[in-house]
Amino acid sequence: NAARERSRVQTLRHAFLELQKTLPSVPPDTKLSKLDVLLLATTYIAHLTRSLQDEEESPGEGLGTLRGDGYLHPVKV
């Protein structure tokens, strides 16, 4: 059981690290909690969704820019 749990935890940790790598504006050596990774991922997905909706409403204007109303980086400086 202990070996199976270690394997599960390692797989989960690897998945979070891979998710973090896909997020923009996060330096590779940044240490984030799992909660921070999830918050960044969900806000980035929301941003992409809004961008696609804006593109459908106004074709030809590009994806737009990141707005301050939902895309926050949780890393404390």
TrEMBL record:
Protein name stated in the entry: Transcription factor 24
Q: Mind telling me which Pfam families this protein's record contains? A: HLH (PF00010)
- What Gene3D superfamilies does the database record attribute to this sequence? Helix-loop-helix DNA-binding domain
Superkingdom in the source lineage? Eukaryota
Database matches in SMART domains: HLH
**Region (Disordered): which ranges?**
52-77
| Native organism | Mesitornis unicolor (brown roatelo)
Check the record and name the PROSITE patterns matching this protein: BHLH
Q: Name one GO biological process term.
A: developmental process
Q: CDD domains, alphabetically? A: bHLH_TS_TCF24 (cd19710)
Q: Which InterPro entries match?
A: bHLH_dom, E-box_TF_Regulators, HLH_DNA-bd_sf
Q: Which GO terms describe its molecular function?
A: DNA-binding transcription factor activity, RNA polymerase II-specific; protein dimerization activity; RNA polymerase II transcription regulatory region sequence-specific DNA binding
| Residue span, BHLH domain | 1-48
PANTHER family listed in its UniProt record: BASIC HELIX-LOOP-HELIX TRANSCRIPTION FACTOR, TWIST (PTHR23349), TRANSCRIPTION FACTOR 24 (PTHR23349:SF48)
